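Hi team,

Filling in the usual template for the complex we talked about on Friday. All components are listed, including any nucleic acid strands or ligand strings, so the model treats them as one assembly.

SUBMITTER: L.P.
PURPOSE: interface mapping
COMPONENTS: three
RESIDUES: 1037
SEQUENCES:
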Amino acid sequence: MQKKHSRMMLAAAGIVVAALATTGCATGAAPADSGEKVTVTFWQQQMEDFQQEWYKKNVDAYNASQDKIEVKLEVVPADVWPQKLATAQASGTAPDITTINYGKIGEGVPNGEYLALDEVLPAASLDDLKPNIREFVTIDGKAYAYPVNVEASKLLYYRTDLVKAAGLDPNSPPKTWDDLIVWAKALTQGNVQGIAEAANATDLAWSTWGLQWNACDHTAIDDDWAEGLATDPCFQELANFYRTLYQDNLMPQSPKTGYSDPAPYINGEVAMMDNGSWAFASLKADAPDVLANTAVAAFPSMSGAPSETTATLGGWALAIDSKTKYAQQAGDFVNWLAADGTERMVDYFTISNFARFTARTSVEEALKGVKGADDPIVQTISNDVVSFAKHEPAYPFDISMAIGTAIETAMKTDTDLGAAFQTADDSINDVIAKQSLAGANPFK
Amino acid sequence: MHGLPRRVASAILVGLIALSVLFPLAWMAIAGFKGRNEAVRSVFQFFPDVWRFENYAAILSDGPFLKALLVTFLGALVFTAASLTVNTFAAYAFARLDFRGKRFWWLFCITTMFIPGMAVLLTSFLVVAQLGMLNTFAVLVIPGAASAAQMFFFRQFYLGFPMAIEDAALLDGATRWQILLRVFLPQSYAPLVVMGLASYLAYWNAYVWPILTISDPNLVQIMQLLGNFRSERGTDWALLMAGSTIAALPTVLLLLIFQRFIVNGVRIAGLK
Amino acid sequence: MPLAQQQVLEAAVIARGRKRKRKLREDVPKHLRANRTGYLLIAPMVIILAVFVIWPLLNSFYMSAFEISFYKEPKFVGLQFYLYVLTSAEFWKSIGVGLYYAVLVVPTGMLLALFIATFIKSLSKRAASFLKVTVYLPAVVSSVIASQLFIFIYQDHGVANWLLSLINSGPINWLNDPTTALPSVALPGIWLGFGITTLIMLAGLLDIPDSYYESAQLDGAGYFQRMFYITIPLLKNVLLYLLVTGFTLAIQMLDLPLLMTGGGPLGSTTTPNLYIFNAFRDRTPYATSYSLTASLLLFVVIGAVSLLLFRLIRSDKAVDA
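RESULT (copied from the run log):
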C-alpha cells in the first residue's frame, strides 16, 4: 500500500514539476535606455489578407533595417479582440502598439489607456494630417493615435447593365430616398432583389449614422451627452425608409452574410448594394467582371440636395499603450510605418486598390500620379463622399443600438414608429444616467 | 421477429438517420472544391460548377496548418488522458469511499458545473498569467482537466456497481487503489470511451482560451488557425470549408477506432 | 401486461434500487473509512478546481463591486452593478431566451437520443458500428461551420424553403422572423449535441440486462410499455445527468446565435452569454463591470434552476454525497 501511495504522489509531483518547468523563466525585459535590443509588441486586428501582408512585410523590413528595436507582430481576430485586449491589460501584458478604430479613441482616452503622441512623434508628422481627420484623434489638444486610413462607411453600388435593362439611366443614380425606392422596385425581378441592405439591429446601428446626420443634423444624443434625441420625428422618416425596403421585399429577407460582405452582389443576387468603400477593393480583387458593370454614387439623402452627409468616416489608426515601457521606441516604429515618407503608404493604398483613403496631405499629393488612383469610382468616392462624411460618434455603442433596434422594429414588425422611438429614447436616457455621460463628451 | 419487413424498415431508418446527419458534412467537404464566392451562392447547388483543387492543395501544403493539426491532436490525447484520470479518481472516491468532509468537497466540486465561462475568464487568465503559464502546453491542458460534469457522470456509473465483488476483494486484502485499477476501470470501457471522446472534442474545439493564452507559433491550436480564415469583410468560405474538413479527419479516425468499445457485456453480471 | 408480471418487474426494479440504498453512509463499517486514500484521490481535482475555477470566481465577485479599470484606480461601488443588471429588462429577456432555448433543445435532444440509442441497440454489430460513428460526426464540426451550414439551409432559396415548397407551403423567413428565429437556431444546437447524448444513452441502455426485456416481451408488453416500465426507470440516473448537464450547456449557448443572427431579430435570439458578450464590446470600465456582474448573476440562475431540476427528479443519490 505504501508503495502505491508514494508512486502516485511522485507521479502527481512529477506532473506539477513538468508543468512549471514548461513555463520557463521570464527573461528580464531590457530597460528602455540601456541600448540593448528592445522588443515592442504590436497587435493588428485581423482584416483582409492584403492588410496582414502589408503589415507583416513592413514589420520585417523595419526589424531588418536596424538592431535596436524588434517589433513583434500578432494578428488577432475581431471577435475575440475585446477579450484578448482586456485580459492582457488586466495582467499587465498589454501590447505596446495596437490598431485602433477611430470610434474607440473617445472611449479609451478618458480611461487613460493611450499615450499622447505629441512627445514621441515629430511635430511634422502630426502637422501632415488633414485637419478634419486630425480632429478624430485629438482630445484636449493632444493627439492619441496616428491615422493609417479612412474609409467611407456608406456608398451606393449598382449594376449598370441591370439598371439599363430595367429602363433606368445609369448616369443619373437616385438622389433621394424616394428615388432609391423607385429604382429598387424596378430592379426587383425574378430571383434578383433590388438592394442589399443592413437587416439586423447591430448593422443598422452603425451603418445609419450618416443617414441620421442627414435626416436630423444630429445623432441620437446631444453634444453634451446629456439627453436623448430619439423622439425627433426625423428618425421616424429614416425608419420608414428602411421599413419600405424590407416589407416591400426590395432587399433579401434572410441575409446569408454580414452587411459588409459583398458576396450577394458579386453573385448577382442583388442589383444594388449599400456598402462601404472597402467593398470596391473586394470587387476589384475577386470579381473584376462584376466591377466592369458597376458604378458607384454617394448614397441618396433624404432631401436630395447635393453635398450632404450620408456616410461617416471610419478607419484605422495606430495607438500606443499609456503604460508602455518603451514609449520612444514604439513612437519610432509608428512614425516610420505611417508618417515618415510616402512610399510605404502609397504602397498600402495601391495594394488596397485605392478603396481606402489617406489622412495625410503629402500622401494624397503623392498618390495623384499613381496608376489606378484616377479610377472614376475612386474619384467619385473621394470627391462626393469622403469630403462630406462626418466623424463616427464616440458615445457608447448601447446608444447606437437603441436606434438600430428601433429601426429593426420598424422593419420587422408593424409597431407604431412613435412608440418604437420613445422606447429607444427611454433606453438612451437610461444609458446616460447609468454611465454618467452628461458632460463626458471628450471631443466637445 | 426478424423477418424481411423488419430488416427493410431498419435499413431505411439507418439510411434516413445517416442522411440527415451526413448531408451537412458532405456539403462542407464538397464546398471545399468550390470557388471563393461560389460556396455562398444563393441558389443551392450541391456540386461545384468546376471542381477546384486549389483550396485543398493549399491547405495540405500549408506547413503551419499541418503543424497546428499535429500539435492539437497530441494535445488532445494528453488532455483526454489527464482529464479521465483526474475525474475517474475523484468519482471513485465520492462513489465508494467515506472520508471526513466528503459532503463539503462534493458540493465544492459540483458547484463548478454551473459557473459560466465568462464569469471567470478574466480572473482565471490572471491566475495563469501570474503562474507564468502563458504560452505553455500546461495552460491548455491543466485548467480544464478537472470537469465536475464528467466526474458526476462517472460517479453515477460507479454507484451502480454491486458491492459484492468489492467486499470480497477487500476481505482478500486488496487496497482501494487495486480495486479501482483492477476492478472498476476495466469494467468501464463504455463510459470511458464516451467521456474520453467528449474531453477530446472539448480540447479540439477550444477557441477563445487558446487565443487568449497562446501566441507562440509552435503551440498554436487548430481552431485558432481556422479563426484566421474568417474576417468581417469577406470570408473565403471555400477555403474555410476545406480547412475544416481536413481538420475533422483525425477526430473521425479516432471515432472509428474507439466506437467498438461501446458494446454490450461490459458490466459485471447482474443481480444476485 | 398481466398484473402479476408487472409486480415481478417492479419488484426487480426495486430490488436493484435497494442494492444502492444499502450503502448509506451510516452503514459503512469502520474498516472502509479511508480518509487518506479519499483525499489523495480527490486531490488533483480539488486542487485544479480551487486554483483555476473557485479562486477566480471569488476574485470575480470581489471585482464586481468596483468600476473596473486597468489604468485608473478602480472605484468601489458596492452592489451598484448588481442593481443595474437586475433592473435591466434586456438581461431578463436574455434569461428568458436562454430558458426557452434550453426547453427547445434538451428534451427534444434527449428523446431523439433515446429512440435512436434504442434502435442502435437492436441492430447488428456492423450497422450499429456505422450508426455509432455517424451520429457522433456532427460534434466533430465546429460551431462556426455548423452555423454557416444552417444559414445556407435557412436562406431565402435554401433547402428548408425548398422542402416546404414540395408541400406547397410558402417560404418562411426563418432567421429574420422573431417567432421562428430561436427555434431555427435550436436545430443546429440539437444537431451538434445529439451524438454524445445518444452514445451516453446507449452506454446506459447496454447496462440493462436483456432478461428484463425478454420476460416482458414473453408477457406481451409492447414497445412503449417496455420503454416506460423498464427502460426509463432504470435509466433515471443517466437521464438526470443528461438533463442537468444539457440544461447547463444549453443556457450558455453563445456561438450559434452570435454567428447566425447576431442576437436578433429584436433580441429574440440573444441568449444570456450573447447578451454578456455584447455588453462587453465597449470595453469601458462600466461595460467591463456590468458584463462581469451579469455573468455572475447568470451563475446564480443556472445554479438555482439546476438545483430545482435535482429536487424535481428527486434522485436521492444525486445530491447527497
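MY TAKE: Residues 19-27, 316-321 of chain C have pLDDT under 50 and may be disordered. Chain C has 15 helices and two strands.

Thanks, L.
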